[in-house]
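Project outcomes to date are best conveyed with an example. Our students and postdoctoral researchers have been running inverse folding experiments weekly, and each run begins with a structure described purely in tokens. The record below, which covers 271 residues, was selected by the lab manager from last quarter's runs and is presented without edits.
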């Protein structure tokens, strides 16, 4: 396996470790993780995506064959394999993945009796943190031990919310869990950003949802919304982020704008 270290690029004094989380499935969480990661790498930052979802969609969406991986996040969490041995470069310069596979599905149960079960991912990430500017953790759509590991390892949480009916469903429980992790395991954890995804310009519903989310969460909500497009849906099947699959598409432009907002650049309103 090629586990070459990323080359130093732009300086970033404090590496940002971000959990991408929403217990509701189908909200574009993995798509957002992949594409924000690719856009940050495009800006010149060194980025690691940690695929914490047993489905492994963040890994396959970046062109990896998870069945051929010699090591995965499962080995890191359960067998104390160094995170360094799990890093896989992608076709996008500066973008690396710590891949997942179906073995991770059993980790929820196997972690129960493990010593320091909630902090295993945190310790693994800390061992490679000096190599990266951003670490994005793609959490599974559940609130079990894998997600707790992701929240304990992170310093902030980004929540993608789809611009559809019941958008806020389950979000209250996620926020309560973020508070619980903050109180008991990770006092610096907080929700930093909410991203509205799957925005359909043809419907009033999408605009109403965005308005409702902004009313609830104010400045935490990105100015840029992510459009619902066929090209965004197609990109993962080709193992590419939207920025390389269709660089000039509306989806690519939107994710570049979101990445600028996340990194503190000047936002561009799209949608």
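After processing, the design step wrote out the following sequence:
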């Amino acid at each position: 396996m090629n586990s070459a270290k990323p080359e130093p690029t732009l300086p970033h004094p404090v590496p940002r470790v971000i959990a991408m989380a929403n217990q509701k499935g189908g909200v574009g969480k993995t798509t957002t993780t992949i594409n924000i990661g690719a856009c940050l790498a495009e800006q010149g930052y060194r980025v690691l995506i940690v695929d914490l979802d047993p489905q492994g969609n963040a890994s396959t969406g970046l062109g990896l064959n998870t069945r051929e991986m010699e090591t995965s996040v499962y080995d890191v969490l359960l067998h104390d394999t160094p995170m360094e041995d799990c890093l896989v470069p992608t076709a996008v310069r500066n973008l690396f993945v710590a891949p997942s596979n179906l073995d991770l599905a059993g980790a929820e149960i196997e972690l129960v009796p493990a010593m320091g079960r909630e902090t295993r991912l945190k310790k693994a990430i800390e061992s490679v943190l000096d190599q990266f500017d951003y670490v994005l953790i793609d959490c599974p759509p559940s609130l079990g031990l894998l997600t707790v590991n992701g929240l304990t390892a992170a310093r902030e949480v980004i929540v993608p919310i789809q611009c559809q009916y019941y958008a806020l469903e389950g979000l209250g429980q996620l926020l309560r869990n973020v508070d619980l992790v903050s109180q008991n395991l990770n006092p610096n954890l907080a929700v930093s950003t909410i991203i509205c995804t799957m925005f359909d310009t043809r419907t009033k519903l999408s605009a109403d949802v965005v308005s409702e989310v902004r009313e609830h969460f104010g400045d935490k909500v990105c100015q840029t919304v992510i459009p619902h497009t066929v090209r965004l849906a197609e990109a993962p099947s080709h193992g590419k982020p939207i920025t390389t699959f269709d660089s000039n598409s509306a989806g690519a432009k939107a994710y570049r704008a979101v990445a600028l907002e996340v990194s503190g650049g000047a936002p561009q309103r799209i949608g």
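The first strand starts at residue 16 and ends at 20. Confidence is low (pLDDT under 50) at residues 8-12, 266-271. The training component of this project remains on track.
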